Amino acid sequence: MIRLEHLSFQYGAGTQREGQLKDISLQVKPGEFILLTGKSGCGKTTLTRVINGLCPQFYPGVLTGSYFLDGRDAASIPIGELGSIIGSVFQDPRSQFFATNTTDEIVLGMENAGFSREQMLSRFRQTVAQVGVENLLERPLFSLSSGEKQRIAIAAACAVQPKVLVLDEPSANLDGDAIARLSTLLFRLKEAGTTIILSEHRLHYVKDFFDRMVIMDNGTITTVFDREAALSLTEEKLKSLGLRLFHEPAIVHGKRLVSTESAAVSARQISISFDGHKVLDEAALCAPEGKILAMMGSNGAGKSSFCRVLTGLYKQQVGQVYIKGKPAKRKKRTVSTFFVQQDTDYQLYAATVEDEFRVGKRPRDISKAQIERFLEDAGLHDMLGRHPLSLSGGQKQRLLLALAAASGKEILVLDEPTSGLDGQNMRVTAGLLKKLAAQGKSVILITHDRELLSEAADSLLYMDKGKVVYHRALR
User: Fold this and answer.
1) How far apart are CA 280 and CA 278, in angstroms?
2) What is the rounded CA–CA span in Å between residue 214 and residue 64?
3) pLDDT at 14
C-alpha cells in the first residue's frame, strides 16, 4: 500500500530546523498497522506529512526519493484524490477544522468527495456510533474541550472510509475513556482492512494489535520491531530509547483530603455557567505549598474552567477563591499565579527563546546565565536563539514550564504539560515539577497522563460534570 524508497525531506529556508527526513525506506502492506514512535523532534510528524501529501504541497521544502501509494507514484496523484485515499488526524485538531459546527465538520469530507446524500447519512450514522460522539453533535466546534475536538477530528477522518488512516498523536488530549474508545475504533478499522500509520508516544492502548513498531531518531528509521519483539523490550530498554512503557501504572489512592483556606490556594463552592450550561457546580479545591496536585476527569468535566477561575481568567458566579487564607479577587489571582495553558502558541510572544524570559521584565531582572539554567532544567539547553514558534509542540510546553519556573510566582498551574511528550521528556518534566514543589511552589496539574501522575503527583482531584468527585492523597 505504501512504498518509500530513499526518501528525504528538508523544510524550506526560514522554517523549522527539526523534523527533516534522511534516506527513509519503508514498505507497508495493505491492512498493516504501523506504530511510529521515537523522541520528540525525531521526524515522525514530517513523515506523516509526506505520506498524506502535506509535504511539500503545504509545507514547502525539498523532497527527494520515491513514494508509491497503492502502486501509483504519489506525486502524480491530485491532492483532492489523495485526500479521499488517505484520512488524516493531526495532533492539534484546530488546524484541520473548516466548519464551525461539529456535525458539519464530520460530513465535510464526504461532501467534498461528492458522496450521495444516502451514502453520507449512512456513513455519518456509522461513524458517530463507532467514535462515540453522539453527545457532541450540533455543537459549536470552538466551545469544545481539546479532547472533544480531537474526537470530532477522528470522526471526520473516518467518515470518508479511507484506505489509509494517518494519525499524529491522536491520544494527546484524550481522557481514559476516550482513549479506550479510540483503541477499539483502531482495532475495528484494522480488522476491516484499513492501513493505519499511527505516530504516537503513548503505546499502551494499541499494544494488543499493532503489527510493527518503527522507531525514528534524528530523521531516520533506526529500528523496526514486530509486535512480539517490541513487547519483549524491558522497561529499562524502553526508557533508554526515550520511549514510554507498554503499560499504564496503577493509581493507588490514600486518605481523603479536606479543603482548608490556609493553603497556598483554595476554593469553595465555585459555580459558573456559560450559555445556560453549568460548567462548574460548587467545586472546591485545596492546593498546599510544596505539593503537586493533579486534576483528572473526562474531557469537558470542567478542569480547565476551574483552573481559569483559580488564575483569574474567569470570574466565578458563586463561591470564593483564597490565596494563603485571604479572599483573592481576580487581579490578585492573576498576579499570584502562572498558568500554562494547552494552546502554547497563545502564550509565546517574543522573537527568540531568550527574549521570552525578558517579556515584561527589565534587562537587569534576569541574566543570560539564569535563563540558560532554566532552559537546562527543561532539557532545552541549545534553544536560546531559536524562534519560539519554530519549536516542536513538546518543546513549547517545556519552554513554558521553564518560563513558569523563572516567573517567581508561588502558584503554578499547568494544563496537560506532557501531552505529546515522549517518555524521556515526560520524565524530565516530572523531575522539574518535583524540583519546583521542593522549592515551596504549589503546583496544580491538569492531566490524563497516568505515567506523569505516578512519577510526580502528591494528590489527585477527580472531576465529573463540573463537580469534584473526590480529592485523595497518592502513595
Assistant:
1) 6
2) 21
3) 53
Cβ partners under 8 Å of residue 209, min gap 6 = 33, 186, 187, 190
CB of 253 within 8 A of CB of 78? no
Q: What is the C-alpha to C-alpha distance for residues 147 and 180, in angstroms, rounded to an integer?
A: 13
What is the predicted pLDDT for the residue at 261? 61
Residue 88 amino acid letter: S
Supply the pTM of this predicted model. Answer: 0.85
pLDDT at 163: 94
As a residue count, the chain comes to: 475
Find the helix or strand (DSSP H, E) in which 238 lies: helix 235-240
Tell how many helices (H) and how many strands (E) occur in the chain. Answer: 16, 21
Distance CA 8, CA 255 (A): 55
Q: Could you give phi then psi for residue 445, rounded to 5 degrees?
A: -115, 135
**What per-residue confidence (pLDDT) applies to 142?**
82
> Strands, DSSP E only, in 173-306?
195-199, 212-217, 220-226, 253-256, 265-274, 277-287, 292-297
Low-confidence ranges of the chain (pLDDT < 50): none
Q: What is the pLDDT of residue 10?
A: 92
User: What is residue 18's predicted lDDT score, i.e. its pLDDT?
Assistant: 62
365, three cell numbers: 531582572
Sign of the Cα pseudo-torsion (300, 304, 306, 308, in order):
negative
Q: Would you state the cell numbers that stand for residue 460, as one nine-digit string? A: 489527585
On whether the CB atoms of residues 201 and 423 are closer than 8 A, the answer is yes
Q: How far apart are CA 222 and CA 216, in angstroms?
A: 5
Which residues are paired to 414 by β-bridges? 340, 445
Q: What per-residue confidence (pLDDT) applies to 447?
A: 93
The residue written with cell numbers 539564569 in the block is 370
Q: What's the half-sphere exposure (Cβ side, CA atoms, 13 Å) at 14?
A: 1
CB atoms near residue 189 (< 10 Å): 20
Cβ atoms of 197 and 164 within 8 Å: the answer is yes
Q: What is the DSSP letter of 15?
A: S
